[in-house]
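Hi support team,

I'm opening this ticket because the web form for multi-chain structure prediction keeps timing out on my end. I have pasted the exact lines I submitted so you can reproduce it. The total is 882 residues across two entries, so I didn't expect it to be a heavy job. Is there a limit I'm missing, or should I split the entries? Thanks in advance, R.K.
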Amino acid sequence: MAYSTQTFYNFFALSLLAFLAGCDTNETLSLSKESIIYCSEGSPESFNPQTVSSGTTIDATSNQLYNRLLEFDPTDNTIIPAIAKSWHVTRDGKMITFYLRKDVQFHQTRYFTPTRALNADDVIFSFSRMLDVNHEYHPVSGGKYPFFQNAQLAELISSVEKINEHTVRFQLTRPDSSFLANIGSDSAVILSKEYADQLLQLNTMQEIDMLPVGTGPFKFKWYSSSSFIRYEAHENYWRGKSKIKQLVFDITPRDTGRLTKLLAGECDIIAYPIAHEKIKQHDNLILESVTAFNVGYLGFNTAKPPFNNPLVRKALSYAINKQAILDAVYTGQAEIANGIIPNSSWAYDETISSQEYSINKAQELLSEAGYSDGFSMDLWAMPVQRSYNPDAVTMAKLIQADLQKIGIEVDIVSGYEWSTFLRKITDGEHQSVLLGWSADHPDPDNFFSPMLSCSSAITGSNRTFWCNEKFDRLIKRALQTNSINKRKVLYSKALALINEEVPLIPIAHSKRFQARSNNINGKLLRAIGGIDFNGVTKN
Amino acid sequence: MLIFTLRRLSLFIFTILLLTLLSFSLSFLFPGDQLINLTGQLNASPEQLAILANDYNQQFGLLSQYFSYLNHLFHGEMGYSMNSQLPIATEVLNRLPATIELTCVALLVAMFFGIPIGFCAAIYHRKLPDNLILTVAMLGYSIPVFWLGILAILVFSIQLGWLPSAGQISLLFEIEPVTGLQLIDILLSDNEYKWQAFQDATRHLILPVIVVALAPATIFMRLARTAMLEVLDTHYIKAAKAKGLTFSQIIYRHAMRNAFIKVIRDVGLQFANLITIAMVTEVIFSWPGIGRWLIESIYQRDYTAIQGGLIVLSTFIFIVHIIIDFVYAALNPLAREPHHGAR
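Hello R.K., no limit was hit. The queue was backed up. Here is the completed structure from your submission:
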């Protein structure tokens, strides 16, 4: 007995040693060499970017699973061909014809095997689903298409016609200068009609958004809710098969968790890194940034008192010390936002000066509005880090301290999971909220219509529920002309109106950061829209 | 043995009934509509709600509602998670195996190291090894688990880069879930990278297991030490000594087995403690188990998940308790038939 126990212990210790020693074999190396693990900040709400506008979903799906008719050049943001190899716009601007590539193949997955390449039917299906309320796929997954409804494309596009197998024509009700930019946005992806027909037959239509089929460089393999997404390379990708065999999105909502995984080598790339200095100290890690088309703001629920009173909103805009927020939350890696438009856009208006920080003025306005004794309010701080707001809770605390000086008690609401948070905000449960917006395409309209128009107040991306007819008229007129000068004047007026009515207080335009290990090559970050793994390789 | 079994079973049934009563009353105590708290059907239409109300006997008295709730529970229907809108039963079944794996391995490790070391301390009673072991045990028991977990990640994952800091296995490996127990699933799978996956999963286990096992191991040390001291003080050991058996013969043949039985009895009690530690550890190491899920549900105010998770986790602890009781009884005839034995 004595002998056997000891032998057993010895055997155990020896086998443990042997086991650990043999950890890094060639086979694992080869698997990890061909795979990239990207640590993302949140779970996608859907696998179809048509149905959602959140950056997390766009990052996870848009450029990876799908293609659009047009794309933006990653360096200068001009429109370039994608599925449409060329296009033609008539002189009156009302008829746009797209000529499609003939070699675009859909994904073959465990749930779908395509029998044909992409053709005009797929393009028409993808747009009809969003535009035609009577389409059988329109109500699937809630029937909301935030980006398209905000841009009011249903009213703009009068018809989408098939000219022949590989030619599609869009008829517009009026000329619209942002139309091509909208078609190239991350949400304008092309789905497979053949797959949709198959699901229709099986009566499992809702699967179209959860088990996606697209034409992009990667195809869907598996999604484990709130845990990870597994993609694998699309063998027949029309730009050539990706060198990455496997792409995994490791969903890691905590920023410290992502940093740890990067340092421990469990992630190749992490989204929204913290501790920039620490990352720079490591020789094998690279910190990247891109000045993004975005804005972080404090939004008021203008449907609820006391923020249905513009005076109160204006008062708060005087009381918030933006510079302090910039230093503490963005660590100087951002610019103060004077309006909702960043200064790299042509619609930026220099005449709108930065908001004055004055407690006296704030108090005057408050007493004018009848709140001289102050009041208490809730402030919802978003639970995830986005480039436009890397740390909403700290920002909320700073604002809490600022507003205490004018007698306003702030109750910070945080701790909800991102999708729950968004649902509650869309239902209007908040009084005020710290949120932001990342542009889908370079056209300045993308800052106005989705964030503050009346139609977006209905679809839910206008979280302030502010609906101003004059403002709506201005931004509509700006879309009817192709002249940049005329548009600029109209947008200036719209910006002035926002400044006067203050449905939201713009706080900062930030840079978007990303950290990666130095054996990853390729350009992932885009100034506009989601990340793109096309052409990314690993040494 | 029959009476022993019946006694345990009746205890089990009453405890579970009390638990369900608690969970049922929670649905009233949580804010919001009681029926929605119970079923988690946030997006139900008024018609669906009417059907549900009928289903849960809402038109009758509380007692009838409770029995209808019990009926649903026994059919495995615990409602839907308010957060994910998936059935609680599915969510639990997806996550419980990971917790079972972590806690069972940790329990084995704690026993494997704790009990022999405790025996050692008893053998060298009041000598240097004993004092040393007692000090270490005290220290190990006093270290807060969240601090230890973070420290372990800081040293072994970030500074040294030896071991991974999060999850059950690297996401590179695709393992088909069959039993839900990762190590067993890997062995069952036909993945070409099977052995690498197995090593990777083991490396992922090491840190969390050590963190979970430390506190119970120190308790086992002290329990084993006390048990061994008691045994060494008995007459039969003295008789054995008088017979002229060598010290190692006494320890291995007589003392160890009898002391071991005494420790086993307390393993069940320690299991509840182990689960509590495992819940915190799961959060730190992003271990996809039920503890982390339950803690997240509390953050999300997912009331249905809290009720369901509570019942499943307590039932699990209770079942382990009973199993260990049976093991103890099987090993020790005195426990089975106390009235025949001499105490």
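A quick check on our side: Chain A touches chain B through 36 residues (CB under 8 Å). Let us know if the file doesn't open in your viewer.
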